[in-house]
Predict the 3D structure of the following.
Amino acid sequence: MCEFWIRTNTLIKLLNKTQRGLALECGFSERKIENQCSNDRIPDAIEAVKIAKALNTTVEFLVTGTEENQAEKELTELKAKLADLIMFKK
């Protein structure tokens, strides 16, 4: 089984959901996720976004296993703004 489905199934269990329930929540046919998972088929981008949203995560996490921490993202944005302010004053 590919890493995408391993991560997806882990989140399904953590959130007390089922593959069928997730499929219906995403607007898919009842067995779509089951079939993709058993055939080791990664969903297309639009399907992956729907799955990630339903699992309250990101496509990046489902695909790579890494996710940018929100605090790190905000810090990076603040650093960029500070650099702009410093350059503006010169």
Summary: Residues 70-89 form the longest helix (20 residues).
